[in-house]
Each structure stands twice: as C-alpha cells, then as structure tokens.
Specification:
Rossmann fold; 3 domains; 12% strand; 336 residues; Single alpha-helices involved in coiled-coils or other helix-helix interfaces; 16 helices; Helix Hairpins; alpha/beta; seven-stranded parallel β-sheet
C-alpha cells in the first residue's frame, strides 16, 4: 500500500505514523525526501522531521572510520550481525563525499555486506550523491534522525572519504571508533594525530592467525601514543581493543566497552550535553551553508563573482577585500 497523498504531495502525518511503526516503504520514501534537492521535497522533509523529532535520540550513534585495507566492511557486517543477534535494530549509513565523482564504493554496499543486508533487523543506506561534504553530512544527519524515529537502536555511521570526513562523523555521533590494521612503527607515524585524537575506542582488526603477535604489539604502541594525548573527557580515556571480524572474535568485548563508554560519559550528563552541542553546531553549519548558497545564487553577486575570483587568483585583490565587496553587494541588494 502506498502512502496517502494530500494536495498532490505525500500525507506527511500518515508517513510519520508509518515510520514510527517501522514501515520500510515509508522509511525509504522519507529518506528520498530528505536527500532530495528539490525545494518542495525539502519543505515536506522538514515538516516530517518536525513531527518525528520527539521520537528521535533513543539510539546509540556510533561513528566508524578506518585506514584502507583494514577490513571495515567485514567488521561492520560482523558487528552488525552480532547486534541484531542481541535483538537490536541496526542502521548503517555512510558518508562518502566522493560518491558523485567516482560512483562511490558504496554503491556496492549490499554486496560487500551481503549477510547484513538480508537481516530483517538491519538497514543499509548508501551515501547520498553530493559533491559537498557538508551536503552529504546534512542529509546523513537527517537520515539518522528518521532511522531513530523508525525504532533503530544502533546507528552505525561509516566514513569512506578521507580528510575532513572523520571530523564530520565525529561531530554527529556519541562514540567514534577508529579501525586500524595490525602494524606499528611506520604505520603509527602515518596516522594523522588529529584522527587519533578523535577516537574514543581504537580497534585493531584482523587480529587472527600469524597477525596476532603483530596486533598485540600494535595495540601496545597505540596505547602508548594515546596516553600522551589529552583525553576529550575527564570521565573516559580511549581504549585499544583487538578484533578479528573474519572470525567474529572481540566484537562482544567491543560492545561491552561501548556500554562502559556510554555509562562513563553519562556522568555529569556529558553525553547529553555533547548531543546538544552537536545540534547547535548543526544549526550554525546549516545557516552558513544556506547563506553561502543564497549569496552565490544572487544575480548581482554572480555577475561579479567570476571576475572577482580571477582577480584574487591573479593577486590583484586580497581574498578578504573580495569577500567583503561581494558581501556588500549581496546585502545592499537584499536591503533594497
């Protein structure tokens, strides 16, 4: 049965009720609205989110990043299957700012997580195709809220891109996992300090067979490196664990550790305060992006933009002076 329609558009209240009941078709339709760039779809999406907002916030939001070749897909599938076996409903979302340009590795999500994709208690959503990391992040945040309203207990947000995507994911989750391969020395040197500082739990994956001794040495080295960093919370010091996703070993300890993390961060209401700060930052990010888009689409600004940018590149005008002039044109035309 399709959703009822009202005024040639979806009946938002009816869609919200279906989502609350876990209806997958309504969930997919809602996510399509949230990811759409059409103005009418965005209006409907925001109405829907307004209705669903009281039903959000009841999940554990887990960010997952990892170095290439670390076995992230195998890990997420093993961890997801472990959670669904516990009776948890699990949603896997991906932030991949390269998906529009490359077609995205994520298009093969249901292939690379074949067992999890068939699990009735799991939901896997590819990254929305957007060239902007900010755009992908905004839509992923909204999809996360919709999934929470649909009753998912655990939201796994995976980062495929490199660079700022780790920070973006860390800014929307409760706990951030960093997956690393069983290596040390040069490998440790190659990991950006900023990424290590984001991690609440470091997971050495592929700790199986001949790699177990190497994984143990790597874990020891990472513990040493982490001990030199200032912890994000006075109530939690990042932990280093070992797993073998292939053999499904260590995922139970990881889940227990996540529970310990949530309990520790709940002291002094830290976790709740973190979510409030994230929501505030999300609002400012949304405001900044909307203003920049409005500025770029302004006919008076766009008429000057290419020439001004060329002058900046040629060193004829300073970036600050160019920005101020464009902003002045925009504000002047807005006031009139």
């Amino acid at each position: 049965m399709t959703e009822k329609r009202k005024n040639n558009g979806p009946d938002i209240q009816d869609m919200a009720e279906r989502i609350r009941k876990g209806n997958r078709r309504a969930l997919a339709r809602a996510i399509t609205l949230a990811e759409s760039i059409r103005d009418d779809h965005q209006v409907d999406a925001q109405k829907l989110l307004g209705i669903l907002l009281p039903d959000t916030g009841n999940s554990i939001r887990i960010g997952i990043s990892g170095t290439p070749g670390v076995g992230k897909s195998t890990f997420i599938e093993a961890f997801g299957r472990f959670l669904t076996a516990l009776g948890k409903k699990v949603a896997v979302l991906t932030i991949d700012p390269s998906s529009k340009r490359t077609g995205g590795s994520i298009l093969g999500d249901k292939t690379r997580m074949e067992e999890l994709s068939r699990d009735p208690n799991a939901f896997i959503r590819p990254s929305p195709s957007s060239g902007s990391l900010g755009g992908v992040a905004r839509r992923t945040r909204e999809v996360m809220l919709i999934c929470e309203a649909a009753g998912f207990d655990v939201i796994l947000i995976e980062t495929v891109g490199v660079g700022q995507s780790e920070t973006t994911v860390a800014d929307m989750v409760d706990v951030f996992l960093l997956l690393l391969a069983p290596a040390g020395g040069d490998e440790l040197q190659g990991i950006k300090r900023g990424v290590m500082e984001l991690a609440d739990i470091v997971v050495i994956n592929k700790a199986d067979g001949d790699l177990i001794p190497i994984a143990r040495r790597a874990a020891s080295e990472y513990r040493g490196a982490i001990s030199l960093m200032r912890p994000k919370s006075k109530n939690w010091s990042p932990k280093v664990l070992m797993t073998s996703a292939l053999n499904k070993v260590g995922v139970d300890e990881l889940w227990d550790t996540i529970g310990e993390y949530c309990e520790a961060r709940s002291q002094e209401d830290e976790l709740n305060l973190q979510r409030k700060e994230q929501s505030s930052a999300w609002m400012w990010s949304e405001l900044e992006e909307s203003l920049v888009n409005r500025l770029k689409s302004n006919t008076h600004v766009s008429a000057k933009l290419a020439g001004m940018e060329a002058d900046v590149k040629a060193g004829k005008v300073s970036p600050t002076a160019a920005a101020r002039e464009l902003l002045s044109i925009f504000l002047d035309k807005q006031e009139k």
